[in-house]
């Protein structure tokens, strides 16, 4: 199956990025400053939505950089023009960045990474730092996923070596 490549496929990609900025920004700023979703009274749920939004903003910024490089490449070599499925790749990156931002915050919050960012006696994080962590999680979505994957693999190997010794 071949798909038709065209500059026209940049239109849905741009729409996906605009939605990423719009939805991510709305979740963060709407909930934090405008009091959106007043019936959602659980502070953890409200924070999770804000973190997800910040992750979306970070990954959308990542997509914007990649999109600019993609256009430059397509102009130089028309065989690299986008096709119908490219916008889905951008959309999953935006949503995946929201998830990664939230998971990275949970890793910091659980104490697994907190020692790198705050003194050991810090009981929690300020909301600004939490949002920054989530934004970075989205911005570096793929690198963080690879790092988490390799860290977990190392932990599993160490666990299997430790259990084989006993």
Task: Walk me through this protein's architecture.
The protein has 166 residues and is mainly alpha-helical. The protein has one domain. The chain has six helices and no strands. The longest helix is centred in the middle third of the chain and has 34 residues. The radius of gyration is 19 Å and the shape is flat. About 4% of the residues have low confidence.
DSSP helix count? 6
Percent helix = over 70%
List the helices and strands in order. HHHHHH
**What is the total tally of β strands?**
0
Average pLDDT score? 86
Describe the biggest sheet?
A: none
What would the keywords be for this entry?
single chain; mainly alpha
């Amino acid at each position: 199956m071949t798909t038709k490549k065209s500059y026209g496929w940049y239109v849905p990609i741009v729409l996906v990025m605009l939605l990423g900025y719009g939805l991510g920004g709305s979740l963060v700023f709407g909930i934090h400053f405008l009091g959106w979703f007043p019936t959602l009274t659980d502070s953890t749920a409200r924070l999770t939505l804000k973190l997800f939004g910040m992750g979306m903003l970070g990954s959308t910024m990542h997509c914007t950089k990649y999109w600019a490089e993609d256009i430059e490449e397509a102009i130089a070599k028309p065989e690299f023009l986008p096709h119908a499925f490219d916008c889905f790749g951008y959309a999953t990156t935006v949503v995946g960045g929201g998830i990664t931002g939230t998971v990275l915050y949970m890793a910091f919050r659980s104490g697994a990474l907190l020692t790198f960012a705050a003194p050991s006696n810090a009981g929690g994080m300020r909301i600004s730092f939490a949002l920054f962590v989530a934004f970075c999680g989205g911005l570096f979505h793929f690198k963080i996923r690879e790092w988490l994957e390799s860290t977990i693999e190392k932990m599993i190997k160490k666990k299997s070596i430790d259990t084989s010794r006993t």
